[in-house]
Amino acid sequence: MELQFPDVSQLRFSSSCSFLTFFVSSDTPRRPAKKAKPPFLLVNSEKRNSDALKGLQKEANKDLSRILRTEAAVKGIEKKANSKTARNLWPKAVLEALDDAIRNNQWESALKIFGLLRKQHWYQPRCQTYTKLLMMLGKCRQPKQASLLFEFMLSEGLKPTVDVYTSLVSAYGLSGLLDEAFRTLDDMKSVSDCKPDVYTYSILIKCCTKLHRFDLIDHILTEMSYLGIRCCTVTYNTIIDGYGKAEMFELMESSLMDMIENSECLPDIYTLNSFIWAYGNAGQIEKMEEWYDEFQHMGITPDIKTFNILIRSYGKAGMYEKMGMVLEFMRKRFFSPTIVTFNIVIEMFGKGGNIKQMEHFFQVMKHQGLKPNSITYCSLISGYTKAGLIKRVDSIMRQVENSDVVLDTPFFNCAINAYGQSGDVKKMEEIFLTMKERKCKPDSITFATMIEVYNAHGKAKASQKLEMQLYDRNKNSDMEGQESRSQKPNMTWTLEMDNYLIEALVQQVHLGNKIDKLRALLSWNDQTHTIDVEPEVWNSYVESHLKVRQYHRKKIDNYDDLALICGNDQVTR
Question: Of 263, 352, 272, nearest to 315 (Cα)?
Answer without folding.
Answer: 352
